[in-house]
């Protein structure tokens, strides 16, 4: 079974028609048909799959961390806010120790105040007085306090 010397064999023809770069590219890029998959996600690069997974997972983690707060009642919070006035100087109250710096909380966002109070209660924020104050109230009381304090006008 010898081939005719005047007819170039198939391998030699393929090599003559393609330069070395094309041969290398076909060897590296082309896969056998059995190794191909029908799932389009399996054809994407690993980095793109990781990015898509992060885009899908991260918002779900954020929603779990910021659970909706209990709805606060500002009228009930007003009765509880007397404990805040000593340090925070709410509604015209003058602090006896002006050199002791405390944040002004009147008019802050209700969500921010509620989150801060819950973090003090859980011990995530470190201030012994605020931890003790927050731990003395129920979660609903803290929501009421946040609603009242956020409703106050700032000067």
From TrEMBL:
Query: Which InterPro entries does the record match to this protein?
Result: Cyt_c-like_dom, Cyt_c-like_dom_sf, Cytochrome_c_Oxidase_Subunit
Q: Does the keyword Heme apply?
A: yes
One GO molecular-function entry: metal ion binding
Q: What's this protein's name?
A: Cytochrome c
Which Pfam families does the record cross-reference, listed alphabetically?
Cytochrom_C (PF00034)
Which UniProt keywords are present, listed alphabetically? Electron transport, Heme, Iron, Metal-binding, Transport
Start and end residues of each Cytochrome c domain: 72-153
């Amino acid at each position: 079974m010898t081939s005719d010397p005047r007819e170039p064999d198939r391998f030699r023809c393929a090599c003559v028609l393609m330069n070395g770069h094309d041969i290398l590219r076909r060897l590296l890029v082309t896969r056998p048909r059995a190794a191909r998959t029908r799932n389009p996600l399996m054809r994407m690069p690993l980095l793109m799959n990781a990015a898509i997974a992060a885009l899908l997972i991260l918002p779900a983690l954020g929603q779990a961390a910021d659970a909706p707060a209990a709805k606060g009642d500002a009228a009930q919070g007003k009765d509880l806010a007397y404990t805040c006035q000593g340090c925070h100087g709410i509604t015209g109250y003058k602090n006896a120790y002006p050199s002791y710096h405390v944040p002004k909380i009147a008019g802050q966002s209700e969500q921010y105040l509620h989150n801060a109070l819950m973090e003090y209660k859980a011990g995530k924020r470190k201030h012994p007085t605020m931890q003790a104050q927050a731990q003395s109230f129920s979660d609903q009381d803290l929501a009421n306090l946040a609603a009242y304090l956020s409703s106050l006008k700032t000067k």
